[in-house]
């Protein structure tokens, strides 16, 4: 767990950031419900529920939304070290954006209500586990969303991105399978991609065992996970496996060119910058040549025949340019695309619906598109 795990019990890390369609946050533990432990709230002059920054906007983010800026301030207060200064094991112990948003909830005295999804662990295959989120209400079989977390194929876990998976379950009424794929540098490319596709195939074969409908399966992911989700769709197409009904790609890693306009503008951005992305590539790819593989370099891949796609982009993000490029390339290939860029946001904002209004809006767009595709 990150070094800021003192904020809440580790099993609850990242669980307090959810916002449902009524903008009320939600919470869950791992496999049983639990209440957040008592914490001391620092009011800082703010009224309960108010999210506002305390200092000037950073030089790199002159148009940051106030709530987004407040989260970034909390992140910087946790003093994360730059990724290039760290080994992968060290980086996995660093404070995360999820920790920062959780701390902002404490400062703003935002209290989460009980969860509306049950969770359970599941071993999909050797070395690959998942957390299964199942709606508490409604009758199965439910649609299924196979979700891949971010972290540059190197850091983070299903715990770090818990709020996104929980939001998709609660708001779509689908079973969500959040996949814990293997990571570099211990497991280099294409291990995470192979695990992602194997997990998708497991869901197709075993949907009934998790109250799911094998004929109504979508894929989704954030950052590296967004790239994995699209690569899964490509492999399903090429290997004549049933295609996902939809793919949700949230600020996906869609290329290996670190000289795009957004990379050039993101030398200082938080929580992700150009140097951090280059560190991810160094730790996951075997050689620079792997960056040209179509599973990494999605913007140059054959995208014909892929499922309808929703792409969510963040403003201050080295991946902004390639996300838009991927949307354009998909449309040119005849794929139906809904692309939304959220001004004033940063990488990792999607799971922060309880504190960042744009995250609530983005989750609403994603939910509407997924529900329509999975009817």
From TrEMBL:
<feature type="region of interest" description="Disordered">
    <location>
        <begin position="40"/>
        <end position="63"/>
    </location>
</feature>
<protein>
    <submittedName>
        <fullName>Alpha/beta hydrolase</fullName>
    </submittedName>
</protein>
<dbReference type="InterPro" id="IPR050300">
    <property type="entry name" value="GDXG_lipolytic_enzyme"/>
</dbReference>
<dbReference type="InterPro" id="IPR013094">
    <property type="entry name" value="AB_hydrolase_3"/>
</dbReference>
<dbReference type="Pfam" id="PF07859">
    <property type="entry name" value="Abhydrolase_3"/>
</dbReference>
<keyword id="KW-0378">Hydrolase</keyword>
<feature type="domain" description="Alpha/beta hydrolase fold-3">
    <location>
        <begin position="145"/>
        <end position="350"/>
    </location>
</feature>
<dbReference type="InterPro" id="IPR029058">
    <property type="entry name" value="AB_hydrolase_fold"/>
</dbReference>
<dbReference type="GO" id="GO:0016787">
    <property type="term" value="F:hydrolase activity"/>
</dbReference>
